[in-house]
# Entry
Amino acid sequence: MIAPLDSLGLFELAASLPRQASDARRSALEIDIRSIDPAHGAGPIRNVVALGMGGSGIGGDIVAAIAQPVSSVPIVVVKDHHVPAFLSADSLVFATSFSGQTAETLDAVRAARQAGARVVVLSSGATMGELAREWNVPFVALDATIAMPRAAIAAVSVPPLVLLGRLGLLPGIDDELDAAIAQLQRRVAQMDDVRSPARELARRLGRTIPLIYGAGPIGAVGAYRWKCQLNENAKEPAFCNVVPELNHNELAGWGQHGDMTRQVFTAVHLRHDFEPPRVARSFDFINETQQEVVASVHEVRAEGAGRLAQLFDLIAMGDYVSLFVAAQEGLDPGPIPVLDELKQRLG
# Structure
């Protein structure tokens, strides 16, 4: 059923995510970081900025979600042409463009360099690779044989985590990565089973529009990844929001139109072990409220030892759910012609 519909091999790439994470870790350990390392006279790092768009940019979201709670410096994610005015020689910038040609990221990294920031480039080459060579800055070469940026999520997120660990800004990341890779191996091993939880959830989503809710930094990134994968792989509308913020606005929107929304929407709640108790309790109320106004509510609970393991576990689940939705609808998950057309029109 799957092979004829998967022209870019996204199922195989999803299955290779544990190996991709291991390879990305190894490549990051080989990077020469003396030019950006305070231990080699580069000066202190006072802030970290991650630049990138789409499937490349989500690497920065993962870095921020994992690093912000423990890092001694702020981590900022920028998905735009412009960079913050605070960038200086004390800033470390990760600029990620899988293709090496992303217009927004090229504009932003040039501005960051002009501001004097230390730059690390992650790319498969092209213009971004040329800039890295011209500037003589650390360069993480991404595997150009990966069919789509969205399939390279470990390749774009693991190297910055490793490099921050090497710079002393992310304690404990080695153990976190060990646990994350182990959990990815366990989760991927489930997916060939006809009873896999991802396949079952895809069936239950059917032709409804998914609403993905997550809590805190881990849940927020997980929910956003699910939304994007359902958009691109399954070619369907999907939306996401974050607890507790949605408790102050979106929750009130379920007060009417239940006769219509019950036919259209399915809610998916992404849960993990690092939710504050008050936030965890609010999910019970959200569930109770939505049961009356959506087709169904489903909970997906992350597994794994540690924050990175649970985030990657949610990501792997969402990737497979989106692929199974595409398969059951007879769609090829790979091509995204409407996005290609937009890029052509924008030049």
Observations:
- The first strand starts at residue 47 and ends at 51.
- Residues 187 and 229 are 17 Å apart (CA to CA).
